[in-house]
Automatic annotation (TrEMBL):
Residues 57-235 form the PPM-type phosphatase domain. It comes from the Bacteria. Pfam families: PP2C_2. It comes from Bythopirellula goksoeyrii. Gene3D superfamilies: PPM-type phosphatase domain. This is PPM-type phosphatase domain-containing protein.
């Protein structure tokens, strides 16, 4: 006979269950790659890597979706960084990636003129998640928290909180959205565009608190060459050394992994957080 899950496990199992539901829907429409790997998709080479860095546990997450059949979305990816002071944030970051790509694809499937807004949709979803958890608060209370502390966690939405960045390519070009202190470097036909926010002070994030903020940025470009998305743990090294994603790298090379390995070896004194990097580069015919 299988024993029922302990109270400490119920919240995490619920969050993982929701992520699995989103994952099943995504898998029916394409292929999923999580956390670490390299994928060649049409004219794109996409890599992702994630390490614990200076922390014991890795609360970051990343996800890449590639269509299995003709689709208006050529590829989509998300990376997230669970808020350190929030309980179960490692499950919140995973859930955010799966939810973001699911609502993104739904907008293309359901709208005649898609206007995908995955960050705003996820803000609403996490608010509903807070309401749902509140309805079963006693059942889901972790053993490590007293009833009073759990009540305050629910009131402030201090569980499953996470930053989120989403990028996708369609017939109109590349779109990037983000909330939180993650950054990007985008190389286009000319100068590069970069976003390197400071992580000092409060950080905007997806939260079950019911307080729906707005995304921090959205950028749309028609022509681009390469892209790097990274969580704030990578930002100090990028600020010191810069980051160039070559378009002529070997097809099987995981650029994200090799770049993170270099940062961790050269700048260990700067990296005291989880580090996640996703790179995408357009392949040119030789």
């Amino acid at each position: 006979m299988i024993a029922p899950p302990k109270p400490a496990d119920r919240l995490s199992r619920l969050l993982k269950h929701y992520a699995l539901q989103f994952g099943e829907r995504l898998a029916r429409a394409g292929s999923l790659y999580e956390s670490h790997g390299h994928i060649e998709c049409n004219e794109f080479g996409i890599s992702t890597a994630s390490e614990a860095g200076g922390r014991r546990n890795n609360q970051d997450a990343s996800l890449i979706w590639i269509p299995q059949q003709p689709s208006p979305v050529r590829w989509a990816a998300a990376i997230s960084d669970g808020v350190r002071t929030s309980i179960q944030s490692e499950h919140g970051s995973q859930l955010a990636c799966y939810a973001a790509l699911t609502v993104l694809l739904q907008s293309y499937q359901q709208e005649k003129e898609p206007n995908a807004q995955p960050i705003e949709q996820c803000l609403k979803y996490f608010s509903k998640l807070g309401t749902k958890v509140g309805e079963y608060a006693d059942h889901l209370r972790p053993e490590m928290l007293s009833k009073g502390n759990w009540k305050r966690v629910l009131r402030d939405g201090r569980f499953a909180q996470t930053t989120l960045m989403v990028a996708w390519e369609d017939d109109r070009g590349l779109t990037i959205e983000g909330i939180g202190d993650g950054g990007y470097i985008l190389n286009i036909d000319g100068p590069s565009l970069s976003y390197l926010p400071s992580s000092d002070g409060p950080v905007n994030c997806l939260s079950p608190s019911g307080v729906c903020l707005r995304r921090d940025f959205r950028i749309e470009v028609q022509h681009w060459e390469s892209l790097a998305l990274f969580t704030d743990g990578v930002t100090p090294a990028v600020s010191m050394e810069g980051l160039i994603v070559p378009t002529n790298a070997a097809k099987e090379e995981n650029l994200a992994s090799s770049t993170l390995d270099n940062y961790l070896s050269v700048y260990p004194h700067l990296i005291d957080d989880n580090v996640t990097l996703l790179t995408a580069a357009r392949r040119h015919q030789q």
